[in-house]
Amino acid sequence: MNLEANGIGNRGRLMKRLILVCIPLLLAMPAAWADIGGREITFRPQGASPVTFSHEFHVIKKKSSCSQCHSAIFVPKVSSFATSMNEMYKGRSCGACHNGQRAFAVQGNCQKCHAG
Fold it and tell me: I need a labelling partner for 56 at 20 to 30 A (CA). Which of 29, 31, 70, 107 fits?
């Protein structure tokens, strides 16, 4: 039986190529996830000093999962985040954790987030 004639040989070569391409990509995925966890975001609120949010600090050093914030507090979409200090005081956005119990309270601790 000629395997080439019925396409089995071609499929085998295609699978081998896919494996050779996919395995290195799969092995590189944890490094890509680390980049996501390590990226800093700087917010520039109107009338206040900038705030730099460190994913590395919150996700890696504090051992939080992405889903703790992105599924419940923040929509995982570029440029979708807008909040105010009043919202935070009510326990929304950053104030969900920065409530004085889980992490330092946003109220009265301006200098901890806003760069001078």
Answer: 107
Domain 39-113 sits in CATH at 3.90.10.10
Three-state SS letters, 71-103 = CCCCCCCCCCCCCCHHHHHCCCHHHHCCCCCCC
Q: What digits encode the pLDDT tens for the residues 30-87? A: 544 444 555 788 888 888 899 998 888 888 778 787 778 877 777 656 555 678 899 9
**What's at 83, amino acid-wise?**
T
Predicted local distance difference test score (pLDDT) of residue 107: 93
Query: What's the CA angle centered on 94, arms 89 and 99, to 5 degrees?
Result: 50
Average of pLDDT values for 91-105? 93
Structure tokens at 107: 């109220």
The pLDDT, as a whole number, for residue 31 is 47
What is each CA distance from 109 to 23, 53, 79, 114, in whole angstroms? 47, 15, 25, 9
Integer Cα distance of 96 and 21 in angstroms: 42
CA angle 14/22/65 to nearest 5° reads 155
